Amino acid sequence: MTTQMTIQRTADVIAAEIRSIDQQARQYVLQSAIDIGTRLKEAKELVPHGEWGTWLKNNVNYSQSTAINFMKVSEEYANSQALANLSYTQAVQLLSIPAEEREQFVQENNVTELSTRELKEVIKEKKALEKQLQKANEQAEYERLEREKLERSLSEMQQQNAMNYELAERYKAEIEAATASGNDEQAAKLQEELNKAQASLVDSNKKIKELEKQLKAKPIDIPAKEIIEKVPEAVEKELEQLREKVKRSDNKALAKFAVYFEAVTNNFSNLLSVLHEIKTNVPEEYEKYRNAAAGLLNRMGEKVK
């Protein structure tokens, strides 16, 4: 007597069979679309120019947009096993995702389980986020360029300020010499020039303060982990002490030192910002420029020992 075993069919077994059939159907439909697209590309090369639309209508009853979708699918999915479980409709919708991002997008969003409407919404959200990101990047780039413009203006104004100061000091010395020699006419002319130089000095100081105010309102947005270095707090404190000391002193050397020291400090900050940009945008060049900056700073340090 032979006993025949029967497999008990459950809802879970049936569900597994459905999933298997569905996967096979998806693969078959997508592969068929790839094969159709490949042949359409072949045919298009043979059909006379200007007759493609008519050929499609008469021979395969496809619109030109449908034919384009088939041909794109054949180009984009022919060698992609990771996307073989997509339906044809999903594959067409995913053509709007860059090829290098497609597989990751499919995995992260579990695309094979999404309906056509759901997938359309996910892609729409992705495009919207990308647009927002692009807009934010464009705004950040605009602000960076604006800050660079302000920094250049500040540097130029600081240099002009130092020149005005030097000029004023020179006129003072020449006035003293002319007065001592009894040349009052020459002293009067020099006094006029001194007044102009001092007026320019006042004007350049006002512009420097305004530029510094604008720069403070446009901070550089650099993540903390990527900040290369900043001007040491001790140096900033020392600079402020020098400013106060100059206000209380008539010593010309101290005044000149404060002007030049502040210019060097600001330019050092600018140099660090540019180094960060190089590290971010052209990292292969960063080490060369960092070494150049370090070498210059070492030579400067040796000069003041």
Average of the residue pLDDT scores = 79
Based on CA atoms alone, the radius of gyration comes out at 37 Å
Structural class: mainly alpha
Uncertain segments are 220-231
What is the general shape?
A: elongated
Task: Please work out how many helical segments DSSP would assign.
Answer: 10
- SSE order, one letter for each helix or strand: HHHHHHHHHH
Assembly form of the protein: single chain
- Number of DSSP-assigned strands: 0
User: Major sheet, described briefly?
Assistant: none
End-to-end separation: 108 Å
Tally of individual domains = 3
Q: How much helix, percentage-wise, in residues? A: over 70%
Percentage beta strand? under 5%
Which helices and strands occur, and which strands form pairs?
Blueprint (H helix, E strand, L loop, with lengths): L10 H36 L5 H8 L4 H14 L10 H6 L5 H10 L7 H65 L3 H33 L16 H15 L4 H30 L1 H21 L2
Helix pairs in contact: 1-3, 6-7, 6-9, 8-9, 9-10
